[in-house]
Amino acid sequence: MARPDKAAAVAELADQFRSSNAAVLTEYRGLTVAQLKQLRRSLGENAQYAVVKNTLTKIAANEAGIDTLDDLFAGPTAVAFVTGDPVESAKGLRDFAKDNPNLIIKGGVLDGKALSADEFKKLADLESREVLLAKLAGAMKGKQTQAAQLFQALPSKFVRTAEALRAKKEEQDGAGTPAPVEAAE
């Protein structure tokens, strides 16, 4: 029978897995307490970084319906539970890992889908949500401008075509009638 403290720890971890958008598993071997504190700050306000026991975390992940992480629970493991923008937290982990090579990103899960360490690095290379939304808004505004120009061009092209047809018809009518003869003196 499981001890009550372990059962409570598993329940808490399972709740964190369920309530987070993403969970990133890392190996922290060789990092000092001060470096771990710095890492927690670099993740931002929307992430919680916790050193965990592999067996309990594996059980909690399975209880939360995440069974793709089982092979990542080897060696000293810590989990970053992300409740906000996962790109921001992925950038924080990537930047910290550049400065501190002892931090190794093992992989994780994003919205229920397993991601490898390389996929998290690609996620970190994305621009922030605000920048992507601004680019989308700019693209949509550009398309609206193009549509307005197209709708304006149709009537003006029709008018130019009608005017050209009228001028051509007048020219043809003028060529078919003989020129007036002037009296000779």
Annotation keywords:
about 180 residues; alpha+beta; five-stranded antiparallel beta sheet; 5 strands
Explain what this protein looks like in three dimensions.
The chain has 6 helices and 5 strands; from the N terminus they run αβαβαβαββαα. The chain has a 5-stranded antiparallel β-sheet with strand order 2-3-1-4-5. It has 185 residues and is of the alpha+beta class. Helix 1 (4-19) packs across helix 3 (54-63) and helix 4 packs across helix 5. The chain is elongated and about 105 Å long. The termini are far apart.
Computed Rg:
34 Å
**Count of β-strands:** 5
Mean pLDDT: 81
**Total of helices:** 6
Sequence of secondary-structure elements: HEHEHEHEEHH
Summing up helix and strand content along with how strands pair, one would put the structural category as alpha+beta
Question: Which helices and strands appear, and what pairs or packs with what?
Answer:
Elements: H1 4-19, E1 22-27, H2 33-42, E2 47-52, H3 54-63, E3 77-82, H4 86-99, E4 104-110, E5 113-116, H5 117-125, H6 129-176
Antiparallel strand pairs: 1-3, 1-4, 2-3, 4-5
Helix pairs in contact: 1-3, 4-5
Quick summary:
With 185 residues, the chain is an alpha+beta fold. Helices cover 58% and strands 16% of the residues.
